[in-house]
Specification:
By secondary structure, the protein is an alpha/beta fold. It is built from 5 helices and 7 strands; from the N terminus they run E-E-E-H-E-E-H-E-H-H-E-H. Helix 2 packs across helix 3. This is Host attachment family protein.
């Protein structure tokens, strides 16, 4: 997964669009031991529960027909909003000196959204990225998969 082992005191962010785990490796590169330092959760019901209106319709030019318009995916928008919030939390933590190095693990879409919002202080401290979702894995499985 990563090119090199996760060093002692390196932080690990494991996130998706609804949950973020901030972990710290209190072990070493060969025997990682992740401890939870912070958990952020964001309630995000399915899009069908968030939309209040029926999908829109639009008249086709000159044909007398009406075409459906794709409804807004509120669930995806909330995931993107949460990714931006996580990037802001990372900035505040980096600015306060909470971590010197961090590894980010998130699904590709969330990882891409967070990248758009990283501050240069955070970018300078990122030592690795993994484009996978580990948020629902037990801590020992996260350790094993990131150390492999």
């Amino acid at each position: 997964m990563l090119d090199k082992p996760i060093d002692y005191k390196t932080w690990i962010l494991v996130a998706d669009g609804e949950k973020a785990l901030f972990l710290e490796n209190v072990g070493d590169g060969e025997l990682p031991n992740f401890e939870i330092r912070r958990v952020e959760e964001h309630e995000n019901p399915p899009a069908r529960e968030q939309g209040a209106n029926k999908p829109g319709r639009m008249s086709d030019a000159g044909s007398g027909h009406r075409s459906a318009v794709e409804d807004t995916d509120w669930h995806r928008l909330e995931k993107e909003r949460f990714a931006a919030e996580i990037a802001d939390i990372l900035y505040r933590m980096a600015h306060r000196g909470r971590f010197e190095k961090i590894v980010i693990a998130a699904p590709p879409r969330i990882l891409g959204e967070m990248r758009q919002h990283y501050h240069k202080e955070v970018v300078a401290r990122i030592v690795g990225e993994v484009d996978k979702d580990f948020t629902n894995h037990p801590l020992d499985q996260i350790e094993k998969r990131l150390a492999a």
